[in-house]
Amino acid sequence: MVLREPDLGPAEVIVGLSLGHRTLREADHWLTDQARVLGPDLVACTHLVAGPYPHVALSVAGTAAERLAELAVTPPELRAAAARAAGEHAARRSGRAVRYPGADRMVGTLTVDELLAAGAIERVVALGGAPVTPDTPVHTRDFVRPQWQDGELVLVTMPHHAGGLAPFEVPDPTPCCADH
């Protein structure tokens, strides 16, 4: 699924793909590998979808996104999921950004101001009412996955044990019902 968005510029497109990735980790790795080939200007997102079976669909925006549609073909039974992912990304309603301008600079501890200045993230919010000020430290854990919300790329954070904030999504979550 390829969408051409006039407000994105004449050469920029949004591509929706659904390749049957079962986990976010699989989809993240695939998108990261493709971004190395296609360049740094991509905004590549994951989307959890239920049909025709639970899996992760993808959306990619950028001048090289259309090349991605040529490299990976969505099977017919997953085209509706791919179209949904592209539509959500185009509307900037949902999508978890894996690759985005500045993603490579989201390492170590940054203040909220530094994080916002370093890339495409437009807003930082904290769960539980924790204060977010320009000088609040954000412990990135070198894993920052903002989400499209109401037209903005938003990083959802939570209080960090060392003070400040950390992204809500952790790099290596324990799977549900894992052996302990």
Note down, in words, how this protein is organized.
This protein is α+β, with helices and mostly antiparallel strands. It has helices at 24-38, 65-71, 79-91, 112-118; strands at residues 2-4, 13-21, 43-49, 55-62, 96-99, 109-111, 123-126, 137-139, 147-149, 152-159, 165-167. The strands form three sheets. It has a five-stranded antiparallel sheet. Strands 7, 9, 10 and 11 form a four-stranded mixed sheet that branches. Strands 6-8 form a two-stranded antiparallel sheet. It starts with a strand and ends in a 13-residue tail after the last strand. Residues 1-11 have low confidence and may be disordered.
Structural class: alpha+beta
Q: Which descriptor suits the 3D outline? A: globular
Helix content: 10-25%
Number of strands: 11
